[in-house]
Amino acid sequence: xxxxxxxxxxxxxxxxxxxxxxxxxxxxxxxxxxxxxxxxxxxxxxxxxxxxxxxxxxxxxxxxxxxxxxxxxxxxxxxxxxxxxxxxxxxxxxxxxxxxxxxxxxxxxxxxxxxxxxxxxxxxxxxxxxxxxxxxxxxxxxxxxxxxxxxxxxxxxxxxxxxxxxxxxxxxxxxxxxxxxxxxxxxxxxxxxxxxxxxxxxxxxxxxxxxxxxxxxxxxxxxxxxxxxxxxxxxxxxxxxxxxxxxxxxxxxxxxxxxxxxxxxxxxxxxxxxxxxxxxxxxxxxxxxxxxxxxxxxxxxxxxxxxxxxxxxxxxxxxxxxxxxxxxxxxxxxxxxxxxxxxx
Length: 344
Ligand SMILES: [Zn+2]
What we know:
Blueprint: E1 2-8, E2 11-16, E3 28-36, H1 42-47, E4 55-56, E5 61-68, E6 80-83, E7 86-87, H2 93-96, E8 107-108, E9 121-124, H3 127-130, E10 132-133, H4 143-147, H5 152-163, E11 171-174, H6 178-189, E12 195-198, H7 202-211, E13 215-217, H8 221-231, E14 237-242, H9 247-256, E15 257-265, H10 278-282, E16 286-289, H11 294-306, E17 318-321, H12 325-333, E18 340-343
Parallel strand pairs: 11-12, 11-14, 12-13, 14-15, 15-16, 17-18
Antiparallel strand pairs: 1-2, 1-4, 3-5, 3-9, 3-18, 5-6, 6-10, 7-8
Helix pairs in contact: 5-6, 5-11, 6-7, 8-9
């Protein structure tokens, strides 16, 4: 079969790899119908050291079950399913607490002999716990929005939820990438009436306004902080959703949060330390967030998509075939595309 392999910075190839096949009784074999490129795939695309042997890549996909192992219940050949961005048994103590990203029997796509999502097919470990059935046909117009359930929409939701967004909290979202825009959508869904979106790409912040942002701040750094303070009577917002992962973004987050407020971060951190000394202490700021247990939220977020109330799939603005995946990476790295969807 064909699948995407990353060899180093700027070096993504689509190659022949061994066919995905069942190994364990808890596995399922899924033919990929849609996958996509994640903003976090751009970090290795920018900086991975070159090696002779590449790594499989891609952690967001939906597809059709072709075969199931003998220990898999509740799934059968022909089912359309979505996979969250880590696999998990969904039964251990961490999973029962809604923290499938810490599953005792789970793991990551593309590591330790597990297939990744940007390919023709995937062997899904712990299939019964990992996969969620989608009650639509393989040619449904809802597929892009349903695909966001694998990562960006639940990640935006995790950010808003851990920040404590509710109808009484004001919100600043930092970042106009797919996760930031999904965080706007999630904050709106949780009842926020005031959502300030910090981002400098007008086409993206325009979509953010359609998703529920009430104000857009295009300035960055000290100027951006000043603008948010102006909009909030000098105080900042109760919650700040940091959806970038760069040092400058987390520093901005602490400067635009209101005293007593909460900063939640879901951007994969590209920094080692966060300044949380006396200044943050004196202001009673809470720092929360982390990697999103997408699996925990899929059933909750699914109905709004099925019933057409929300369309997170609008973050996809370019479609590529599997062979065009390298160009898709480059388009996202160049900021020429917001998020690329792949039709194998
Ligand atoms: Zn588990």
